[in-house]
Specification:
Number of helices: 20
Strand content: 15-25%
Radius of gyration: 37 Å
Number of domains: 5
Structural class: alpha+beta
Helix content: 40-55%
Shape: flat
CATH architecture of the largest domain: 2-Layer Sandwich
Number of strands: 19
């Protein structure tokens, strides 16, 4: 469809809330979105200054736009959610979860049982969950079993059957886990009261159950029923013990939902906390692939309605890590800036990060190529590069009090050292400790040679140093006509500042960033490689000078000995015959006499 046709459609759109659908030439829905203002939102897709590659790809395929106007933004949000599930468009994030999580069910029957299930049936029973952690779910059921003696059998306890003595008490009765409703030893009213208290525990309202137990304990004690009072006290203690295992937050934070989001180059992560009576009773993190480079705000807007529906949340307050421009009737939504609520959101973000790290570790072990591809894409995004830095080279200079200046170049391919391509440089044109001139020389020599040999150039060059070393390197890059072809970056050690050519303001990456870790590894490897070469060269010069002090031993003879014996220690222990083989009998004897005299002085 022509741009004129799209322009005509845009002009006809209303300034109303609703749903829009981008359609391709085959009539398939590419993307479904919701908007407060359809006209403004849809028009933004056809802005000529789009920076998002995936968004540009989507827009190029759009030949038609359909809309559904709604009364409110909330109606649009709910409709968007259901349409995405129905059509699953290519460019939409679809919150799917292949896992089947367990539920706790209070069965609709006479003398209801409480147990867990992975299937929900439309049978009138009450279902609570789902529980992302089976361990947590079983802990809740065990707490109920210890406090409330409810039956576990599947008998059909009709009144008539009980009256006719059809059932016999089982082992659970003798263990104290059941009060025998099957033989009429517990009334239906008493049993249902226990179920009511159990429901309070399931929903996290532990304080009300504990208060009731303590009141009954006090009454029993006043009636001198000390055994019953002790049993009630122990049950209250079990509640305290269970609650202490939950993550306790401020008691002033009662019933709230907490959502936090974070992203990397490819995936997004949303963590959800359910907080009841000052304790985190449920935590769940979901991962999904970003299809249009969705921001944290967009991910929250998509995830919140879905996760609240999935976990049956009725909280009237939602705490967020990012303001996502979401309106839900009767619910207060805000981003805390300080205090206990802010700490709670930070804890949620910490859980999201931990979930991501666990995922990445698994990918690294099971699919190394995917792990590498993800890091390369992340580095491209973090460092604002035109292409993924599959080939990176890093330079580091080294000298000792201005002497023996050397430089090292290390090479990483796909984020890993390519040691066979490491190079040392003995500085030729620089006199004295001039770090900037040294950097300019070695960078020029390195890329002059690669150009002459028609060898592949790196996507990124990392310079160990600040703005001065970076500027020196850029002089050589410009001389060679490579500016714009190779990305160049400086890294300063003290604060891990990253400098771009021509930009005085440094870039600071998160200390936990994988991009920064790769750059630090490059810098440290270049430093190690350079120091090793510098130390060897200095030792060699020292040894050469010492040998030249021996009468009759000149530079060429010293060089020959160093090449063969490598070190002073090996020369000292060499026999006269071994020395004679390389420098002749006369010189060998002089060398032997020199080291013998040196040993005697010690």
């Amino acid at each position: 469809m022509s741009s004129e046709t799209i322009a005509t459609i845009l002009k006809s759109l209303p300034n109303k809330p609703g749903i829009y659908q981008h359609i391709d030439k085959d009539g398939k829905i590419l993307y479904i979105g919701k908007a407060k203002d359809l006209k403004k939102r849809v028009a933004s897709y056809f802005n000529k200054n789009l920076q998002n590659f995936r968004l540009e790809s989507l827009v190029r395929k759009v030949v038609d736009i359909r809309i559904i106007v709604t009364e409110t933004e909330l109606d649009a949000l709910l409709l968007e959610n259901s349409l995405i599930k129905e059509h699953q468009p290519k460019y939409n994030i679809n919150l799917k979860d292949d896992k089947t999580y367990p539920w706790i069910v209070i069965k609709k029957e006479r003398f209801p049982r409480i147990f867990y299930t992975r299937q929900k049936w439309n049978d009138g029973s009450e279902y609570f969950g789902p529980y992302p952690s089976v361990k947590v779910m079983k802990a809740v059921l065990e707490l109920i079993r210890q406090i409330h003696p409810l039956r576990t059998c599947s008998l059909n306890l009709k009144e008539e059957s009980i009256q006719n003595g059809k059932f016999q008490r089982c082992l659970e009765f003798h263990l104290g886990n059941c009060l025998g409703p099957c033989e009429g030893l517990q009334s239906e009213e008493e049993y249902n009261y226990e179920v009511l208290l159990a429901r309070e525990i399931i929903t996290g309202r532990l304080s009300s159950v504990k208060k009731l137990l303590l009141e009954k304990m006090q009454s029993a004690a006043e009636l001198l029923q000390f055994e019953e009072a002790q049993a009630l006290k122990e049950k209250a203690g079990l509640l305290d013990q269970y609650q202490s295992k939950s993550t306790v937050v401020s008691p002033s934070i009662t019933n709230v939902d907490v959502f936090s989001a974070m992203t990397d180059a490819t995936y997004g992560y949303v963590n959800y906390f359910l907080v009841v009576d000052g304790a985190i009773l449920r935590s769940h993190t979901i991962e999904f692939k970003r299809k249009l480079e969705e921001s944290e705000e967009e991910l929250l807007r998509i995830a919140i309605p879905e996760l609240r529906l999935r976990f049956g949340s009725e909280s009237k307050e939602i705490l967020l890590s990012h303001d996502c421009d979401l309106a839900l009737d009767g619910i207060q939504i805000h981003v805390p800036q300080r205090g206990d609520k802010k700490r709670l959101v930070d804890l949620s973000l910490k859980n999201a990060r931990y979930f991501r790290l666990e995922k990445l570790k698994n990918v690294q072990l099971t699919d190394p190529d995917r792990h590498t591809n993800r890091i390369m894409e992340q580095m491209k995004l973090d460092l604002r590069l035109k292409s993924e830095p599959r080939h990176i080279e890093c330079f580091d200079n080294s000298n000792f009090q201005g002497s023996d200046a050397v430089s090292a170049c290390v090479v990483f391919k796909d984020g890993r050292p390519a040691k066979s391509e490491y190079r040392h440089f003995n500085v030729k044109t620089v006199e004295g400790p001039d770090d900037f001139a040294t950097m300019e020389e070695v960078v020029f020599r390195r890329y002059r040679r690669l150009l002459d040999e028609n060898a592949p150039l790196p996507e990124l060059v990392l310079i160990d140093g600040g703005k001065g070393q970076l500027s020196a390197a850029m002089k050589s890059i410009r001389k060679l006509g490579l500016e714009g072809q190779i990305a160049v970056l400086g890294i300063a050690k003290r604060l891990e500042e990253l400098f771009f050519p021509g930009d005085s303001i440094p870039l600071y990456l998160d200390k936990r960033s994988e991009t920064l870790k790769v750059l630090q590894q490059l810098r440290n490897e270049a430093h190690r490689f350079g120091i090793t070469h510098h130390r060897n060269k200095r030792d060699k010069n020292t040894l050469s000078n010492e040998l030249e002090e021996i009468e009759g031993i000149g530079p060429s003879t010293a060089e020959k000995l160093l090449t063969q014996f490598k070190s002073i220690k090996r020369l000292e222990t060499a026999t006269l015959e071994e020395l004679s083989e390389w420098v002749g009998q006369s010189k060998a004897q002089r060398i032997k006499n020199y080291f013998n005299a040196k040993a005697e002085k010690k």
